[in-house]
Design brief:
Elements lengths: L2 E2 L17 H4 L16 H11 L2 H8 L3 H15 L4 E4 L2 E4 L1 H26 L6 E7 L1 H18 L3 E7 L13 E5 L8 E8 L1 E6 H7 L12 E5 L7 H8 L5 E6 L2 H9 L5 E4 H4 L5 E6 L6 E7 L7 H11 L2 H4 L5
Parallel strand pairs: 4-5, 4-6, 9-10
Antiparallel strand pairs: 1-7, 2-3, 6-13, 7-13, 8-11, 8-12
Helix pairs in contact: 2-3, 2-4, 2-5, 3-4
Length: about 325
Amino acid sequence: MFDRMAPPWDEAGGKKIHAFPAARLRARPAKLHMNAMFDWNDLRYFLAVAREGSTHAAAAALKVNQSTVQRRLASLEEAVGRRLVERHPSGYRLTQLGQDMLAHAEAVEASIAAFSRALKSSDTEVTGTVRVTCPETDMYRLLTPSIERFRAQYPGLRVEFLMTEKRLDLSRGEADVALRGGPPLDNSLIGRKIGDVHWYVYASRAYVARYGKPARPEDIAQHAVIAFDGQIAEGLPARWFRSYTAEANIVARSKSMLSTLSAVKTGIGLALLPHHIGEPEEELVRVLELPADLKQPMTLLVHPDLRNVPRVRAFFDFMVGEIDRLRPLFG
């Protein structure tokens, strides 16, 4: 049932925050001296700041207060006896020591994640929670009709949806199962292709009545458009769309497919949407079709260490059984 898939830092405004008391970090010796045994859990905060580039963004990623991140990072630095990060106008950057220690901190994180997966794999009961990550629009269009049937079949299981355009890391235990569009980028995951998603340029009927519609891709430059930002701007369809919008009037930018859908429905401009998101909207019309070779696979993914955990396997196999219903939705 599982197929091996092919391979593949901004600080918020506001008052100045002194995250690390100068008295604690002043006059550090050149040689590293451990002042105390550090708390391994503090490495989570160091890694989050390293990845996100600010304590504000790290706090959001960890779902804690910014002051908690600052306190735990300061605690780690106090134990180490030297700075691991430095504050700059654009955010936080790793010191040389921080860069040297980053890979080791990631190795600790990976080991803890593997330990957690091993514990989960020892489960024998089809009970508990399955955490599924997918974009908001895919949850709404693709998964909602299936969930009630799944719950009826597995009353002892609870599905928790982590709805985001961000690719959560299954290897780090951020989710159990992922529903993702585009080619899989992590060759450590296994999964099942559900279908190929076709993309189109859409506009509202009101927009078309007022401004007409492009007859060819080159005409997009004469229209108002809603552009992608963030991770959704990285896919092949988005790059194709961007290649024709350099001279266009960018009226909005969006980091999520749901906000893009909402914007195009208001009639402010053209937008790129996958078939299963744009087509059910009666007030929208296709104005351009993308080349067939830009269609993107939709894949259900799981880490191999969790594939035989009963609750994960139950959800995965159930969704595989839904493929015949899902595939026609992709265009």
